[in-house]
Amino acid sequence: MSDRERDREEVRRRIIDAATALLRDKGREGVTTRTVSAAAGVQPPTLYRLFTDMDELLEAVAADGFARYLARKHGQELSEDPVDDLRRGWDTHVGFGLENPAHYLLMYGRPTPASPTPASQRAQERLHLLIERIAVAGRLVVGVRTAADMVHSAGVGLTLNLIATPPEERDPTLADRLRDAVIAAVTTTAASDAPDGTPAGAPDVARRAVSFKAVLNDVADLYSPGERALLAELLDRAADHTSGR
Fold first, then answer.
1. Distance between CA atoms of 132 and 127, rounded to whole angstroms?
2. Which end of the chain is more exposed for a tag (fewer CB within 10 A), N or C?
3. What CATH number labels 1-51?
4. In which band, very low, low, confident or very high, does the pLDDT at 112 lie, cut at 50, 70 and 90?
5. Residue 17: how many other CB atoms lie within 10 Å
């Protein structure tokens, strides 16, 4: 990196840090061209040379928040219990949102599905990793994608709700109760097979289908691409099957 590029990156970092501090202390309304420029010690034209507009700067601030969130989440060592790892991942997510509400609202309060940021994609990949480990262990009773969507939707919705609720009015048990309810809905307590002679019920069929699909990549040469596509479709159908559906 040249001296000029290094100086440019240093100024860019100062601007992001200044906007982050203003966002934390004064909220979104406190982040303006004037306040950010003054806090970063630069002139407004410098800000717009590095960021097209305020939206682009806020996207950079959100990406920085995501990076810190991911560093915290990826610092969580995986244990031998994948369900407990998912539980701790939920706690980390909610904890970050409550500690950094302004950042969280930038990250999740104004989603842009058509153009997800690399950081948000990495967060989703981490969630899928946690859930796929449950599937491999034979303890997931719905498809990986369904489980990920349920956990993500519940976790984000809960955190946004808590942020919008004054701290003194929050139910301190709500996060744990919803976490346990969602995890109970997508997992089973143990990967035990049905007793000898006992027909497998719909939830057990779903669990086995999810577990089998999760380990298909371990035998990549066993099926042709067409066979793998058909098998994946059939396993997804079984994974989403429950009694009465």
1. 9
2. C
3. 1.10.10.60
4. low
5. 14
